[in-house]
Structures are given as C-alpha cells and as structure tokens.
Amino acid sequence: MANRSLDDPRRQVKLGTERVYDVSNTEFPHNYPGEPDLAWDINRFRQGLKVQVQRLSHRSVEFDLIGVDASIANAFRRILIAEVPTVAIESVYVWNNTSVVHDEVFAQRLGLVPLDVDPALMSFPALDGNSTDRDTLVFRLNVKCERRKGVAKGETDPEKLYENSNVLSGHLVWVPNGEQAEIFGRPVKPTNENILLAKLRPGQEVTMEMHAIKGRGSEHAKWSPVGTASYRLLPHIKIDKSIPPELCDKFASCFSPGVIAVERNANGEKTVRVADARPDTMSREVLRHPEFEGMVSLSRIRDFFLCKFLHFLKIETESAYAPERLFEESVKVFRQKVSAVKKAAMALEAEFHPHMVEERKIPPEARNRDTSSAQKRQHRSKRGGGARSAAAAVVDDPMDES
Q1: pLDDT at residue 312 is higher than 50
Q2: DSSP string, 138-169
C-alpha cells in the first residue's frame, strides 16, 4: 500500500464539510474481484514498510512510519508511554523536613524527577521485597538554608540573601553500593539538575534518603520514558481546478502558514501550489467558502503516520534513553507481546485441536506424499468400485508408501 501514489483513493480518508468519509480500510480478500489476493503477506509488508527520520535532537525525534495499520502505530505509542521500563524514585525516607512542602508532596515531586541511568543495567525488584545493589539505587538529600554574610543593604533577591534558598534536583547525591560504581561507570544523577523541588528560608532544612527502582509507566507515570508520544495521519491536499488569480491569497490563508505557496506564472498572474502539506492542521476552513467549492480535495493518508503525526511520530524523552533508542525499545516490547500471544495460541490449539499439532509435525514433503497416495486410492476406488477396488487399494498401499 505504501508504494502507491498518495492520490490513490483507497489510501485516503476523505474530509468533507461536515463529516469524514472512507474511514475504514477496504483492502481485504475478495473485496475487489479480479484483483490479486489482498490477504496479508509478509513479503509485501516488508516492501511497503518504511521508517523515515525527519528530525532528531538530544530530547526528541520525529519520524514517518509508513505502510502499517493505525492499530500498529497506536500500539507503539502506548508501549512508549506505558511499557518501556525506566528507573525512578520509589521510596523516600524523611529524616527531617522543616520546609513548607509537606512530606508526601515532597516525596511525590522526588518520584517524578527523571534519572539519567540506563535501565538495562538494572534488574526489576525482587518479589520478596529484599533490595540488592542490582535492583536499587540510593540517593541522599541534605540541604540547609542559611543567611549569606556581607550582603549589600537593601538586597531583596533570596538567591543573594540566602545560601540554598532553592532545593533543586541537582542536590540529589547518589550513594553507590556494592559494584554499582563499576557497573554504571559514571555518577547517576537527574537528567535535569535544575528542577525546583522546594524553597527554603534561614533555619529550614531537608534531610532525606531515596531508593530508586526499575519499573514501567503502566504502574505509575513516573516510570514513563517519554514526555509525549503522538502520531497523526499525513495531510493530503489536491487542487482539482485552477484558483482564480484574485482568490489566490484568500485560498492560501485558509491553510496553515507555509502549506500553500502563491506564485506568478509566465503571464504574471497569481497561481497557487501545495508547497508542504505536512504542517497543515486540516481545519477545513477552505470548505466553508462557496467560491472554492469543487476546487480542492482534502484527505489524510491512512497508512502514513507522522510520529508528530504524518504517519508521523513525535517522541520527547525525559529519561536516560536517547530518543532514537526509544523506538527500538518499543519494538522489542512489541515482539515480546507477539511472542506471548503466539505461545498462548499454540497452547490452546494443542489443548482443543491436538490432531492439527500432530499434522504440523509431519515434514511438508511427507505430507504431500501422503496426500498424493490418498488421491490415487480415491481415484481407483471410483473407477473399479465394490470389493475389487477395496482389494486393489490394499494391494497398492505398500507400493505407494515405498
């Protein structure tokens, strides 16, 4: 599907003035008589699948995911949000907290601080609750606010008046245990050291110990590796008729900036063309004006996702994962889920249809030979009939099997 033109109507979800048309995909077996079989095929899927990176930074990645169904794109989105594991603070032991922030609120803020640690280097916590250096990271927070000496008279800025007036995520100190220093190779710290946790004034202090473990976003949002993970279908704009020169500027204003370019032809008259449909929001403003009726068609391409959404995905990361690695991790989780479903289906088949499992164990060449022998016997029984054909079948059996 992805190798065909964007103008192919079967790929389009059409937008009308009041409603959306052709929402469901119609390419399934026997729906189009006379055409090749439309059943799912792994080789055809491989040829059509494309992943094209559009933009990459240290915090985000935008890419096109082409040639898959919306259910697959949404599965990756949900896996990114809730299934890819990360490390976050789970337990907070408060020894002293005289700030205005309550203990439980402070603990909640600490849990949401993203940590720069590779989850692959840690194990999930043991079910018995016993912690080890393989599954638990220990941090300490010890901050006390005091007045600065020698501050100019009349100064009102708290950061100049006091030391440690703000408790920041950078104040978290990692305490390595066991072989953690060798395993991680560098100090574990928050990905952003300027996250404000609390404000202090002279005499106030905070003393805490925190334990961080590995988890998934499905348990709590603090373990979600992404800030946002979204996709949208690629907008497709087709100009069906020439736009009158006097209406070109108005036509361009009906779309997002940069989508429609207004140019002049060889005669000096204004014309329009689609410069870049990707940024368009598909507001359908152009369909509200009767003077443009029948001049333009709006649609989205059903198998082209912008993972910002053109089939396009945008991922903003708040974890130790590099943005380009996040999607790879989601693919690993997706494969694990497919494998689990496959094993469960095979177990059900073995329980309720054991004969099918036994047939599958027979080599294909032997299965074809058995089928050929059975067809020969059936043909002879029809031709000879009665006791003679039955006797012939018995005599011929050893010959067929040899």
Answers
A1: no
A2: EEEEEEE-EEPSSPPTT---HHHHEES-EEEG
Q: What is the mean pLDDT of residues 180-198?
A: 92
DSSP-derived 3-state class of residue 204: coil
**Would the pLDDT of 1 be above 80?**
no
The rounded distance, in Å, linking the Cα atoms of 260 and 248 is 9
Question: Cβ-count burial of 118 within 10 angstroms (0-12 exposed, 13-18 middle, 19+ buried)?
Answer: middle
For residue 307, give the nearest of 232, 365, 202 by alpha carbon: 232
Query: How far is the C-alpha of 37 from the C-alpha of 47, rounded, in Å?
Result: 16
Asked if residue 385 is part of any domain, the answer here is yes
Concatenated DSSP letters of 343-397: HHHHHHHHHH-HHHHHHHHS-HHHHHHHHHHHHHHHHHHHHH-HHHHHHHHHHHH
Count of CB atoms within 10 A of residue 297's CB? 17
pLDDT over 90 at 48, yes or no:
no
pLDDT on residue 317? 59
Query: Could you give the CA distance from residue 208 to residue 172 in angstroms, rounded to a whole number?
Result: 10
Tokens representing 122 are 């840690």
Structural domain contains residue 120: yes
List Cβ neighbours of 207 (8 Å cut-off, separation of 6 or more).
94, 95, 96, 97, 141, 142
pLDDT band, very low/low/confident/very high, at 393 (cuts 50, 70, 90): very low
Query: Which domain does 387 fall in, by range?
Result: 362-401
Better-predicted residue by pLDDT, 31 or 369: 31
**Cα 18 to Cα 367: distance, rounded to the nearest angstrom:** 57
- CATH number of domain containing 197: 2.170.120.12
Report how far residue 34's alpha carbon sits from residue 176's, in angstroms, rounded to the nearest whole number: 68
Cα 115 from Cα 133, distance rounded (Å): 17
Residue 363 burial class via C-beta count within 10 angstroms: exposed 0-12, middle 13-18, buried 19 and up: exposed
Tokens, residue 77: 């989105």
Average of pLDDT values for 15-40? 84
Enumerate residues 6+ apart whose C-beta is below 8 A from 63. Answer: 51, 52, 53, 54, 307, 312, 313, 327
Decide which of 175, 206, 223 is a domain's last residue.
223
Total domains present in the chain: 2
Per residue in 4-27, pLDDT tens? 788 888 899 999 999 999 998 888
- Beta-carbon neighbour count of residue 327 at 10 Å? 22
Last residue of one domain, picked from the residues 223, 258, 275:
223
What is the spatial distance between Cα 67 and Cα 11, in angstroms, rounded to a whole number? 10
